[in-house]
Specification:
4-stranded antiparallel sheet, Chitinase A, domain 3, elongated, 8 strands
Length: about 170
């Protein structure tokens, strides 16, 4: 079966920056819904017409991936607004920010705690890969039609490098 709009693909990949540093390695296949929100548009477009066993290499500029880095999405907040357990690398959903935080902080973003000072906390609403050109080597492990439930959801629930809030210790990228 060839990849077309509205199918399920299982992929493995190696993601690197333009200097060749590996940012992520996906060794076990993960399924994604093509034609929904699971994959970046540029990746979906490139996959069209390929079938299981195929490989491809892509170069993504920031605007084709996670956008340019936006300094307006970095906020300095009072340390006293946050729990003592707060650690660098934690992610916080925007709608879960303390009420006294900057009202300019968009509620629909995830914020990464990038620095903690005695009196302040730095929250960054940019995706961790914002502003970075990426190189991705993809292997298509399988292609199949979606189930009725998958077709209705238009997602396998495993989006491409979406930030998942976690307990202390950082964010998960896929």
């Amino acid at each position: 079966m060839e990849i077309s709009s509205q199918c399920v693909v299982a992929l493995t990949w190696t993601l690197k920056d333009t200097l060749g540093e590996t940012l992520d390695q996906l060794d076990e296949p993960v399924e994604f819904f093509v034609g929904g929100d699971d994959l970046l548009v540029k990746i979906e477009e490139a996959l069209m017409g390929y079938s299981a066993g195929s490989s491809l290499d892509l170069h993504l500029e920031p605007e084709e991936a996670f956008g340019d880095y936006d300094e307006m999405l970095v906020f300095l907040e009072k340390r006293s607004l946050f729990p003592k357990e707060l650690e660098e690398g934690m992610t916080i959903e925007g709608h879960a920010l303390p009420a006294a935080c900057n009202p300019e902080a968009p509620k629909d973003l995830f914020y990464t705690v990038t620095e903690i000072y005695p009196e302040h906390v730095v929250l960054d609403g940019n995706h961790p890969l914002a502003g970075i050109a990426l190189r991705i080597s993809i292997k298509i492990e399988s292609v199949r039609p979606p189930t009725d439930e998958e077709l209705e959801r238009k997602s396998m629930g495993s989006g491409f490098f979406k930030i998942i809030p976690q307990a202390p210790g950082g964010s998960q990228l896929h």
